[in-house]
Structures are given as C-alpha cells and as structure tokens.
C-alpha cells in the first residue's frame, strides 16, 4: 500500500465560503445544468473583520460556487459551439429530413429511420414521433423547419429528467465511485472533474482502485499531479481495500471529495461486476452512507449498447448518475433519448473531446438545440 502526497492546495480564506454559499443557496440563482457542482450544505464562515478584502468567490472549497469558469457566459458560448460541432454527425442526418418543402407521411417515415439510425431506440423514437405529430397538429405547423423546431422542443422535454447538478458538501468527504467499460473515459473524466473541483477550491483525494493496470494508476497520478491533489493507490492488490483506505484517509484528512476510479470491465464479466459491488460495499464500511454518488461513464459511440450497460451497472451498483463521453464525432448521440425513455438515470456531465474544457454539465435544451440547430 502506498499513499503519497502531491502538494497541498493553497489554504482557503475563511470568508470565502459564506459569500459563495449565499450565491449557491439563492433560489433560482443557478439554472439547471449550468453549474459544475453545488454545495448548499456549506456551513457559514465566521465573521470576517470589515477591513479584510473580500476573497475571490471561486476559491471557496466548501461553497464551491456553481459557476466557476466554465459557466461564465463566454465559457458557455464556447462550450455550445463545441457541443454543436461534436454532435454534427448525429444531428445532420436527422436535420436532412427537414430540408424538403412538405410535411407528409414520407417525412415522418424518414425521420423514424434517422432517429433509429442515431440509436434513439424504438421506444424513444415512437414517443418522439407521436409527440411531434401531436404538436404539429396542435400548432398547425405548415413547413418542415417549424416541425424541426417542434422536434427540438419534444426532445428537450424528453431529456429534461436527466438534468441534475452534482452536489457536494452534504457529506464530508463526498465519496464518488466511478465505473464503466474499458476505455469509456473514466480516468480522463475523473481528471477533468478533479480539475473543476480543485479550481472551485474543494480538496480532493483520488483513489486508484484499478489495481490491475499500472498505466491506469500512472494516468490518474498525472491528473493528481496537475491538480495538486493527493492520490491513494496500490499495485496488484484488492481494489476494495484501496477504496476503503482512500475513504478512511479522506475522512481523516478532512477532504471535501474522494473520487474512486475503478478498472474497466464488461457487464458480461460477472465476477468483475461482483467485484465492483464489493468495492461499493467495502467503501460503505469505511464511511456509512458512502459512496454518495456512483457514476457510470459511457462512451457515446457505443449507441444502443450503452443502454444495456446502464441496465447492467445499475442492477449491480444502483447508479446515481452518468457521464457520457465522446459525443464528438459520433452518429449515435440519440442514445441519450433512449436512456431518458427507458432508464432515466441523471446525466451529470457530457464530453465532446479530450481537452479539459470538453467535459461540461448536461442541459437538455442546449443538447437538443445543438443537435437540431
Ligand atoms: N474524442 C474523445 N475522446 C475522449 C473523451 N473522453 C475520453 N476520451 C479519450 O478516450 C480514451 C480512453 O480514456 P480513459 O480515460 O483512459 O478511459 P478509461 O475508461 O479510464 O479506460 P480504462 O482504464 O482502460 O478502462 C483516451 O484516449 C481519452 O483521451 C471524449 O469526450 N471525446
């Protein structure tokens, strides 16, 4: 077992949490899906002498203001452009259906095919078509462009239950376990998430519970280094023990968040699925109630198989959320609609590239507009 320290983040000014938590707690201050994370549980900071200059809001660890850099209007606009370009492959084949001049059965048939090819699934496709016809009749839509706008509306409505903001602060540490098939983007997403948490001033401990692959631990170590956070790992040992040690260390060291990375596995590898369930159980022995979040990372390219993964991992682990990566360049982005229709587990984040800024919070309206604009 080794546990090494990677440099401590700068101490946080005492008055920062109060200001930021007030902002976070303000009703309606945070539109759904626009903040990286939220901490409505931060305890108010002690009074600060009036002469002391105000601390920058983003430095607050516990308060973790929802906005950080990514939710600034400019940052969000940049994200929307990347999202739109990332979803182009999925969106263009659906949009082509609306380039004609007539709304007739042929259009709806073509749309059905396009939605199915985008891996929207039979149920969600049926739902969207029925909704679209109803809306088109009700609004007396007469041209394909108007029908396309109605489709964007119906899709956003279908996807809305998937919107959820990651909340930290109700538990200290908030323990987040991350699972998924090999290469789905778990470690990269954990790295990006760590960066956002660290930027918001939260203290993070990473647990490298992929004890099989040295490269996976090294990869996580690079993210830990970059973000100046601590990491706990163990070569060739029991991944559940790493989870236990990390959560115990997170408690002892007063960390805000412990992120547990696990080895990739297929839902058909039953012994490995049982191992995941064991990691989950053992983490709960280190801290009753933990893990507070169990996230599945899905590769957006896997299409309908992603739904099978959601079902299998949810059955084994009782998922609390999803991260959908690699939506850039996929023609199968419709799978989010299938998930919303058949297993609506919240999507905390979506990814459209390998860069740090390519992972963002999921917003149903943004997604459907980016897809169908
Ligand atoms: N294009 C694109 N690539 C991504 C995205 N997210 C992750 N990747 C890439 O996907 C590859 C696999 O990512 P990892 O984070 O190593 O995946 P993992 O799930 O941890 O892999 P295992 O540990 O082998 O199970 C890397 O090359 C990442 O850079 C994304 O949103 N878009």
By CATH, the superfamily of the largest domain comes out as: P-loop containing nucleotide triphosphate hydrolases
Rg, nearest Å: 22 Å
Number of strand elements: 11
Strand content: 5-15%
- Major beta sheet, strand line-up: 1-6-5-7-4-8-9-10-11
Shape: elongated
Secondary structure class reads alpha/beta
Estimate the mean pLDDT confidence.
Answer: 82
Number of domains: 2
Helix content estimate: 40-55%
**Gap between N and C termini:** 52 Å
Major sheet attributes? 9 strands, mixed
> Can you tell me the residue ranges where pLDDT is under 50 for at least 5 consecutive residues?
1-34, 44-70
Bound molecules: guanosine-5'-triphosphate
Tally of contiguous helical segments: 13
CATH architecture tag of the largest domain: 3-Layer(aba) Sandwich
Domain SRP54-type proteins GTP-binding: 346-359
Membrane topology: Peripheral membrane protein
Organism: Verminephrobacter eiseniae (strain EF01-2)
InterPro entries: AAA+_ATPase, P-loop_NTPase, Signal_recog_particl_SRP54_hlx, SR_rcpt_FtsY, SRP/SRP_N, SRP54_GTPase_dom, SRP54_N_sf
């Amino acid at each position: 077992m080794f546990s090494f320290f990677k440099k401590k983040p700068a101490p946080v000014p005492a008055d920062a949490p109060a200001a930021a938590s007030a902002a976070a707690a303000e009703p309606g201050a945070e539109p759904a899906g626009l903040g990286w994370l939220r901490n409505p549980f931060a305890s108010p900071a002690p009074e600060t002498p009036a002469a002391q200059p105000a601390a920058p809001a983003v430095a607050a660890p516990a308060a973790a203001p929802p906005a950080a850099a990514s939710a600034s209007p400019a940052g969000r606009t940049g994200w929307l452009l990347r999202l739109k370009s990332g979803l182009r492959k999925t969106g263009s084949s659906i949009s082509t259906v609306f380039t004609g001049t007539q709304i007739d059965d042929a259009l709806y048939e073509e749309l059905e095919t396009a939605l199915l090819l985008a891996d929207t699934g039979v149920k969600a496709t049926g739902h969207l078509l029925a909704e679209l016809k109803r809306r088109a009749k009700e609004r007396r839509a007469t041209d394909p462009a108007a029908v396309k706008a109605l489709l964007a509306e119906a899709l956003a409505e279908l996807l809305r239950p998937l919107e959820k903001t990651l909340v930290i602060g109700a538990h200290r540490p908030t323990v987040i376990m991350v699972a998924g098939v090999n290469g789905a983007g778990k470690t990269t997403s954990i790295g990006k998430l760590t960066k956002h948490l660290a930027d918001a001033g939260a203290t993070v401990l990473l647990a490298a519970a992929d004890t099989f692959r040295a490269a996976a631990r090294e990869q996580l170590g690079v993210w830990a280094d970059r973000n100046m956070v601590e990491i706990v790992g163990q070569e060739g040992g029991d991944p559940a023990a790493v989870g236990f040690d990390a959560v115990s260390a997170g408690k002892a060291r007063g960390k805000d968040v412990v992120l547990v990375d696990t080895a990739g596995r297929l839902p058909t590898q039953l012994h490995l699925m049982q191992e995941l369930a064991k990691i989950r159980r053992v983490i709960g022995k280190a801290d009753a109630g933990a893990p507070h979040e169990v996230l599945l990372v899905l590769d957006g390219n896997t299409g309908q198989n992603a739904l099978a993964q959601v079902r299998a991992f949810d059955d084994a682990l009782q998922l609390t959320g999803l991260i959908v990566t690699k939506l850039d360049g996929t023609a199968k982005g419709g799978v989010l609609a299938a998930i919303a229709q058949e297993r609506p587990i919240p999507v905390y984040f979506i990814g459209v590239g390998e860069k740090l800024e390519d992972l963002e919070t999921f917003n149903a309206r943004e997604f459907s507009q980016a897809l169908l604009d």
